Amino acid sequence: MYTCITKNVEETKELGKKLGKSAKSGMVFLLYGDLGSGKTCLTKGIGLGLNINATINSPTFNILKIYEGDLTLNHIDAYRLEGINQDLGFDEQIDGEGLTVIEWPQYIMDTIGDNYLKIEIIINEDDTRTFNFYPYGKEYEVLLKEIVC
Ligand code: ADP
Ligand code: MG
Q1: Which ligand 1 atom lies nearest to the CA of residue 129?
Q2: 6 CB less than 6 Å from ligand 1?
Q3: CATH superfamily for domain 2-146
């Protein structure tokens, strides 16, 4: 496990930017954390690292948004899929080209394979954020070695 703490939105975006720069096609990042913990903020930073020009917003009402950059970014927010138990065909995105970032992955775990980077975000009492990284797969261990925080 690897841990980073960010004091504000800018630091979280900076952390995301590093992740985006180091990401490889086919990777999957799972973002766990309460509402307002910073999942979308981190994803915005990932977008910066991938040189995506479009503004990345929470895809809550679309569930999936796709952005083009150095890698294609598939941004999924499964928040509204709790208990839905339906195959919505996300496997195609997740197994395909590009980087897939998933907010609220616990609701669609049956569509997610065994290899991913689990990122747990904790809101601390002083409003800073703790990011715990758990690599599931060698390529994510390699990626984490590149991330300095
Ligand atoms: P989520 O997608 O997890 O629901 P967002 O990224 O949309 O969360 O929102 C995070 C909120 O927390 C924003 O309102 C942001 O201003 C605030 N915030 C405070 N501190 C931080 C931090 N260190 N990193 C990210 N967001 C922070
Ligand atoms: Mg969000």
Answers
A1: 23
A2: yes
A3: P-loop containing nucleotide triphosphate hydrolases (3.40.50.300)
